[in-house]
Amino acid sequence: MTELRDKLPGSGDFLLHPGKVLLPDGPRSGMGVVVRDGRFTDIGAAGLVGSRNPDLTPIELPHHLVMPGFIDTHTHLTQSLGKSLVFGEPSEIFRRIWVPLEGSLDERMVYLSAKLAALECLRGGFTAAVDAGTRSAGHINALIRAARQTGLRSVIGLICNDLGGAAVVPERATILKNAARHLAAFEGDPLVHASLAISIPEAASDHMLADVSRMAREAGAVFQTHVNEHLVAVERSLVANGRRPLEHLAHLGALGPHVLIAHSTLVTPHELNLLRDSGTAVAYNPVASLWKGNAIAPALQMAALGIRFGLGTDGTRADGFRLMDAAEGLQRAGFGLATGDSSCGGGWLWVERATAQAADAAALAGVTGAIREGLAADFLLVDLDRPEFTPSHDLMWELVRYGNRDQIDAVFTAGQLRLWQGWPVGWDARALLAEVREVTADAIARAPIQRVHKPSAEHRALGHFA
């Protein structure tokens, strides 16, 4: 592996001859892949590609798969410092843990949290992630700086709440001015893409929901919000508006192809039709359902109806392979067992929803998500010389059920090598981990967090099991 690492360029133009390439129509052998100026510029039969690019010496990778990087359609980059505090907690942890924690973070802590989360994303094979917006007080630039330094392609949400749910809630005019500035700040940026966000519909006035959705649509950006995730929020919306949250967004004209709805686990048949007919996209977060949710999003039904959706972590566990496994596994357990569905979409469905379809949901389809000429060279080198892939009879299914992040040898974004065997190239991750360990305890102690359960050892000593 040392020899292979020496062969791989850190950046620049190069030609790969991998054992397999995962193309939009499936895995192929005998292919050449050229990267120039951070993009895929020539993909085809190895001999023809070589003849068209005589200036490049092929890098032979006979036991590796070149595949698109995973895209996390929903995460929280400034929650990494408290990630295990929520284990075993009842729903709506954002009220008791995330809002208090994020609201207490200063600029340095936002930077450290985001950089740690971005590192975890890249280690898990995510070359791009959609951040739902930090609730910290005006430190979004620290988050962006961390994303740039790690090389994680990032869709950064600016929270536009005008009814609470953030450390600082500006006046309406200030929110809209900040939103316009944020949307304009990253035009043409190679790695950072702007988005507008409202934490949950009840955290914003009807006028703000409609205005922010419209602004994002006009700018060609994503408007994102958490919707129909927890039963209590659905009931609050019914009491306040006479409509469920998703219905209320439709009533306000705030849905559309530019909208990315996180979760949508508690959806009625009527609401599924609203998603389909409006072209609204969904972030299906299966691990979040396992760890803290009230329900499982009916992803197979969404796929059958033509509803756009990609996979997201919700900041739970940054491993793209295990995310696909959870996505398929929850559909099998939640719906497939009862109906005798032994395939639950097939391996290809989950690979696509973690890559190309996730890019579509995140408004990145013209940028990344596939090994295709013209797109950014955001890709993984996966070692297939492993017991899990031997013998190989159906690589798409094997990636879903046998893949995990320790099989990823290299992670590239925009044609640059960012990680080699789980560790970054060009910066000291060990120093980051040491700094995070040093400062996190004080940051947690300062935050007005309210946990229902004590840490495991204390909880067990009390004789509680619920």
TrEMBL record:
One Pfam family hit: Amidohydro_1
The protein's Enzyme Commission number: 3.8.1.8
Any one GO MF annotation of this record: hydrolase activity, acting on carbon-nitrogen (but not peptide) bonds
Domain Amidohydrolase-related: 65-416
Keywords per UniProt: Hydrolase, Plasmid
Family named by the database record: Belongs to the metallo-dependent hydrolases superfamily. ATZ/TRZ family.
Xref: PANTHER family: AMIDOHYDROLASE-RELATED DOMAIN-CONTAINING PROTEIN, AMINOHYDROLASE SSNA-RELATED
Annotated protein name in UniProt: Hydrolase
Lineage: Bacteria, Pseudomonadati, Pseudomonadota, Alphaproteobacteria, Hyphomicrobiales
